[in-house]
Specification:
Oligomer: single chain
CATH class of the largest domain: Alpha Beta
Radius of gyration: 25 Å
Bound molecules: ligand MGD, iron/sulfur cluster, molybdenum atom
Strand order of the largest sheet: 7-6-20-19-18-8-9
Helix content: 25-40%
Largest sheet: 7 strands, mixed
């Protein structure tokens, strides 16, 4: 150590003075690590394999992990730089309590005292206002073991109905649409099926920036002759290399899918055998899409009729294909309808459940898949079971050794939790792995509710913007400080390995949760000694459910480089491709490949409805929001990684030159975008890659730069996902002295 030179890194914090800090060890080159730990990236749902270099209990760099089959050593900029967050000076090393007199508003406190205070407040609030008055918000960056524990903590220990998770902002429209159509919520195919597809259809997914390694699969397919169709209001990097780009007006995707199905029927580009033998509901959908002529579809979607016809022909006549979508079609008040529309054109083609014939929603968060299966959703029990189903309740209560009647009924979604704070029904909140002040829509409302809470405790490794409103902050664990499993976008359960110990007073998240249960005197069922013990129990709790993990062990995960669920017993090697006739399916029991008692998939009529807030004379432009490659989600982590901040230091407002000219705006000028709920002033980024009637703002920044000051809290009635992708705004140039 002594002869290792120090290296200083500069992080430009866009909201404060430039911050310089020094680490104790030189990063990466020239230092022999003590060990290399094979694990996975902490960021997106691709979950690329990576090897972390560890020296003196610190992650100092990485090596590619070429053998991991999904990414074979490749990583995106975030994966490459992830190791820089561990030694950041903002890393929480103690428990903190709010203290207005302390600098920064918080002062460090003894961990055990903090736990006691949390337990006392939970006890007080639940005694005074009822069990449901204490709520929990959890996250899908947590390992599956932790998400299982969070569900058990809520439903068995606190017995509150009100737990939900940040996947509510992410995967729920896809989940609901998949459950309605297929009876199961998982990507239908492993990504290898992309490679041999003739047509790849990508709707509302900025693949190259948000699922970067998936780009490689798409490009490999293209090298073999595949044609790529991209549907997006922006010409994203993947769209720049596609064969057909359909520049859709935000919020109109169902109209497009219905229009495509109309042309498939008109030209008889249908797989009649498949439709007759493996689906129900086609006739009603066929009748519904009669009205969706190419002319009408073009008017509603803003896409030229020629493009719609070309897409239908390529899709209709293909012999193999892969359709994928992400939040671009899901973040809508009709997100579930959009997903059903997409699935309808897949089912009509019959191209699913076979090699090179696939469909997938691209999961977002690191454990977006596993995190939505084992009981931290407001209506869910482990194994993708339903909290409202008496048989499911009885099964899980049996595993938990409790009376099923003591399990709460389903609670409310993450946004509704804040509405209930407003109504005085919820008084207390524990959040873990969630930064709602940045990530929820109309976040001025969220801020007001945080101020109203009687008691709020946050568990994180950084003091995120929401945690600044907490009474107590508990120092949780970074990805590399704990072990467990996550489930990737493909549906592959993989092993996260521990590289270093938690620093200072920080604890593994699951230890903190169990400490609270113990301090409450309600530790029954929450006395696990390791993630392995939790995993074994969750396997049993999921047994017989749709998301059956009961045949998976840590050993099998290591030996096979992951196991695709369902995996119902010790001999089973997992299910990479769903819906193959012979694959294990507890619901259909041999009657067919889909997860309904008759084994058949469902067509669903998906009527078009316009966005909740459409443009008008006062607010004439559409605002859509999303991501950039070098920042991640609410930015808590990536805004602390210097090289990523340098890549994209501040949010900018993307607009087309035609619009810019109309507004008298040049690239780099300061402009204010304003909705009925809030406004933000940022620099314009004038690009030819966006529709002239739409502006785009990435949402990774807090405070006055937060896009969610403007967004609308309208939600899909089924999935409760917020409508992040469309609201009405107006934009004006600001004078220099106005800023
Ligand atoms: N770099 C980076 N990668 C990430 C993340 C990150 O924060 N940063 N987050 C991860 C997570 S949690 C998620 S959910 C995924 C999200 O991954 P994506 O869904 O791919 O990303 P978004 O930017 O939210 O939206 C995708 C696209 O939808 C388009 N769009 C907007 N409105 C519409 C519409 O009405 N119709 C259609 N067809 N398209 C529309 C936008 O222009 C955008 O290009 O990314 C994951 N990966
Ligand atoms: N306008 C707009 N808003 C959006 C979206 C959009 O497209 N547009 N996208 C939405 C989507 S898809 C998503 S997924 C949400 C995400 O929104 P959030 O979930 O609120 O965002 P994150 O940045 O993931 O916040 C997670 C917090 O968890 C912490 N964390 C990460 N890993 C761990 C861990 O292992 N343990 C603990 N204790 N803490 C951890 C991080 O430090 C961070 O503070 O944002 C949504 N908001
Ligand atoms: S693609 Fe996703 S998982 Fe892979 S390195 Fe990038 S952020 Fe990490
Ligand atoms: Mo997400």
């Amino acid at each position: 150590m002594a002869n290792v030179p120090l290296e200083s890194i500069t992080t430009k914090d866009p909201f404060g003075p430039t911050l310089a800090y020094t680490r104790g060890v030189r990063l990466d080159t020239g230092v022999e690590p003590d060990k290399l730990v094979k694990t996975h990236c902490c960021f997106c749902g691709q979950q690329c394999g990576i090897q972390l270099k560890v020296k003196d209990n610190e992650v100092i760099g990485f090596e590619p992990w070429y053998e991991f089959p999904f990414n074979r050593g490749k990583l995106c900029p975030k994966g490459v730089k992830r190791y820089l967050q561990g030694a950041h000076p903002d890393r929480l090393l103690h428990a903190y309590q709010r203290d207005a007199s302390a600098s920064g508003g918080f002062k460090a406190m003894d961990y055990d005292q903090a736990i006691r205070r949390v337990a006392n407040e939970i006890e007080r609030i639940q005694t005074e206002y009822g069990r449901d008055a204490f709520s929990l918000l959890s996250g899908a960056s947590l390992t599956t073991e932790k998400t299982y524990l969070m569900g058990k903590f809520a439903h068995m220990c606190l017995r509150t109905a009100n737990i939900d998770y940040n996947g509510r902002l992410c995967m729920v429209s896809a989940a609901a649409g998949n459950k309605k159509a297929f009876g199961i919520d998982r990507a239908a195919n492993p990504w290898n099926d992309i490679l041999g597809a003739e047509i790849i259809w990508i709707s509302g997914a900025n693949v190259a920036e948000c699922a970067p390694i998936t780009t490689d699969y798409v490009w490999q397919a293209r090298e073999h002759g595949a044609k790529i169709i991209v549907v997006d209001p922006r010409i994203t990097p993947i769209a720049r290399t596609c064969d057909l780009f359909l520049p859709i007006k935000p919020g109109r995707d169902i109209a497009l899918f219905n229009g495509i199905l109309h042309l498939m029927i008109e030209n008889d580009w249908l797989d009649h055998d498949f439709i007759d033998n493996h689906t129900v509901g086609f006739d009603a959908v066929a009748e519904h899409v009669q009205q969706w002529t190419p002319q009408k579809t073009a008017v509603v979607t803003g896409i030229a009729e020629k493009g719609i016809r070309q897409a239908a022909e390529w899709w209709g006549m293909a012999s193999t294909s892969f359709l994928m979508h992400a939040r671009g079609i899901e973040h809508h008040s009709h997100g579930v309808q959009n997903v059903m529309g997409a699935i309808n054109i897949v089912l009509a083609s019959g191209r699913i459940g076979r090699e090179n014939c696939g469909y997938a929603t691209i999961t977002g968060q690191g454990n977006g898949q596993g995190g939505r299966e084992h009981g931290q959703k407001c209506d869910q029990l482990p194994g993708a079971r339903d909290l409202g189903n008496p048989e499911h309740r009885a099964y899980v209560a049996g595993i938990w050794d409790m009376n099923p009647d003591d399990l709460p009924q389903p609670g409310v979604d993450a946004y509704e939790i804040f509405r209930k704070v407003d109504q005085g029904e919820i008084k207390g909140l524990l959040s873990i792995c969630f930064n709602p002040l940045v990530s929820l829509p109309d976040n001025n409302f969220v801020r007001a509710q945080l101020e109203k809470l009687d008691f709020y405790v946050a568990i994180d490794f950084f003091l995120n913007e929401t945690a600044r409103y907490a009474d107590i902050v508990l120092p949780g664990s970074l990805h590399e400080e704990d072990e467990g499993t996550v489930t990737t976008a493909e549906g592959r359960v993989i092993k996260i390995n521990k590289a270093v110990d938690c620093p200072g007073e920080a604890r593994e998240d699951w230890v903190i949760i169990q400490d609270i249960a113990k301090a409450l005197g309600r530790e029954k069922g929450l006395t696990f000694n390791s993630p392995a013990e939790m995993f074994a129990e969750l396997g049993q709790a999921s047994k017989g459910g749709v998301a059956d993990y009961s045949g998976i062990t840590y050993e099998k995960l290591e030996a096979q480089n992951g196991v695709f669920w369902p995996c119902p017993d010790a001999e089973h090697t997992g299910t990479p491709r769903l819906f193959e006739p012979e694959s294990w399916n507890p619901v259909a029991q041999g009657k067919g490949p889909f997860y309904f008692p008759d084994g058949k998939a469902r067509f669903n009529v998906a009527p078009y409805t316009p966005p909740t807030e459409d443009v008008d004379d006062e607010y004439p432009l559409i605002l859509t929001t999303g991501r950039v490659v070098s920042q991640f989600l609410s930015g808590t982590q990536t805004r602390r990684i210097g090289p990523l901040v340098d890549n994209y230091p501040e949010p900018r407002i993307e607009m087309h030159p035609t619009l810019a000219e109309k507004l008298g705006v040049n690239d780099g000028d300061w402009v204010t975008a304003e909705s009925r709920r809030g406004s933000t002033t940022l620099q314009a980024l004038v690009v030819r890659t966006i529709r002239p009637d739409t502006i785009f703002i990435p949402y990774h920044w807090p405070g006055r730069k937060s896009a969610n000051q403007l967004t609308i809290s309208a939600q899909d009635p089924i999935s409760k996902i917020p409508e992040y992708k469309v609201c009405a705004v107006r934009v004006r140039k600001v004078a220099d002295d106005e800023r």
